[in-house]
Design a protein that fits this description.
heterodimer; A: 308 residues; alpha/beta; Rossmann fold; five-stranded parallel β-sheet; four-stranded parallel β-sheet; 9 strands; 15% strand; globular; B: 151 residues; mainly beta; Alpha-Beta Plaits; binds zinc ion
């Protein structure tokens, strides 16, 4: 696969080979960065970060990655400060920005915006979230975090917890995990179960799937527990929400039932899905997960720029 | 009752076995309403052994390719196409749902970029039975009922 000029739009476009290659490149860059402190692969290259809706964490992670590769960054962090507010089309914004830069990172509230941007631009485009659709770099950094913790992904039992109905992160992650030999535990309240078509697709692709609403009942089986936020807006009444919320809090008490080696992940920001007392335990790897975003994004920027 | 004989054409294309009521839509999708030259005939609500009632479209002086005709597969999966030369059926084929659908279908997702920016909506057929397509842009899947209301 020729990576130079490739767009990174959807995890669906990635084969297992592609995923492994990105993870391996990220590993290499993380090592080199530790040794040298600063790299210069992207010297003279410019990244444009086009955030049509704000997402400070993702933007900072991409900008940090580009700086660590020796490149520089231009861009905007919300649409209101740009000509978009004056009604400029996405096509025109992309066509303009590509005159100033070598690679584009886009976040946009409309589903499919990154795909369209990639079609319009001659330079590579990386999707940093298009509405409720895709956020492939998050999925890749999740996989990278798992692989760093266990040295492998095959053979693991992975629990996805929380809002599995609307959660873009868990949809993409489970889709990506179909390339691996894993067992999935889908743990959610009845109201927020994983959509049927995704569960069917997972099973069709050979994944063993268990669905339950009982975290304590299955936590002892798991190698990875991936928690997500449950949003109040998803519930018809507050009573129901409070009842559900309480039963999915990961604290030291629940973790007594877990394997010693269980790792807890979360895409962050969290509200109170994970008690702060868990942060200092050997189970917590959610801050490592944040860190992983940098080498993974360095790998994607470097590969698509063709400078590695 | 014998099948109603619509005026035979000398040369052209006859699209038969269109579900009753869909004939006009077939004409629109194939842009036959903008034909100049030969006659265009629509027979609506014709008795059919297979379908009960059906529509038939006859286009004089023009031979539609399989690729063109496959555009109507979404609304008329039962349709058959006859290429007529010198009053005889020279070729006959059934429409087939193509692997990709471009331009004729609108995405049902109101937040899809294809409904807001200048694009040609495009869909990948992921299942024919039952019919299911995935939007090239927003990746949402649409099933038969949604597809029909968005044609
Ligand atoms: Zn769409």
């Amino acid at each position: 696969m020729d990576w130079k000029n490739r767009d990174v739009i959807s995890i669906r476009d990635f084969s297992r080979e592609d995923i492994e290659f990105v993870l391996k490149t990220a590993e290499r860059l993380e090592r080199e960065l530790k040794e040298k402190g600063h790299l210069d692969y992207a010297t003279g290259k410019i990244l444009a970060t086009l955030f049509f809706e704000p997402s400070t964490r993702t933007r900072l992670s991409f900008e940090s990655a580009m700086h660590r590769l020796g490149g520089s960054v231009i861009g905007f962090s919300e649409a209101s400060s740009t000509s978009v507010r004056k009604g400029e089309s996405l096509r025109d914004t992309i066509k303009t920005v590509e005159q100033y830069s070598d690679v584009i990172v886009i976040r946009h509230p409309k589903e499919g915006a990154a795909r369209l941007a990639a079609e319009v631009a001659d330079i590579p485009v990386i999707n940093a979230g298009d509405g409720s659709n895709q956020h492939p770099t998050q999925t890749l950094l999740d996989l990278y975090t798992i692989k760093s913790a266990f040295g492998k992904i095959d053979g693991l039992r992975i629990g996805l917890l929380g809002d599995l109905k609307y959660g873009r992160t868990v949809h993409s992650l489970s889709e990506a995990l179909t390339h691996y030999d894993v067992e999935l535990y889908l743990i959610s309240p009845e109201l927020l179960r994983m959509p049927r078509h995704i569960v069917e697709e997972l099973r069709e692709r050979g994944i063993r799937v268990h669905e339950t609403d009982d975290l304590e009942g299955v936590i002892g089986e798991l190698d990875v527990l991936y928690a997500t936020r449950i949003q109040k807006e998803r519930f018809p009444d507050e009573q129901e929400y409070l009842k559900v919320k309480g039963s999915y809090v990961i604290d030291r008490e629940v973790l007594k039932k877990a394997k010693e080696t269980l790792k807890v992940m979360h895409p962050l920001p969290r509200v109170d899905e994970i008690h702060p007392s868990v942060d200092s335990s050997k189970h917590a790897i959610y801050f490592k997960q944040v860190f992983s975003g940098v080498p993974v994004r360095m790998a994607l920027l470097g590969l698509t720029l063709g400078v590695l | 009752m014998a099948e109603l004989k619509v005026t035979a054409i000398k040369e052209g294309t006859v699209i038969d076995h269109i579900p009753a009521g869909k004939g006009l839509k077939v004409i629109r999708i194939l842009k036959l309403d903008r034909l100049n030259g030969g006659a265009l005939l629509l027979a609506a609500n014709v008795h059919s052994k297979k379908l009960g009632k059906k529509d038939i479209v006859k286009i004089e002086g023009r031979f539609l390719s399989e690729e063109e005709v496959n555009k109507i597969a979404l609304i008329a999966p039962s349709a058959t196409v006859n290429i007529v030369r010198d009053y005889k059926v020279a070729e006959k084929f059934k429409v087939e749902i193509p692997g990709e659908i471009s331009g004729i279908l609108k995405c049902a997702n109101p937040n899809c970029v294809s409904n807001h920016e200048y694009t040609t909506p495009k869909f990948y057929v992921i299942s024919r039975e039952p019919l299911k397509v995935r939007c090239h842009y927003c990746e949402r899947t649409m099933e038969e009922e949604e597809i029909l209301t968005n044609l």
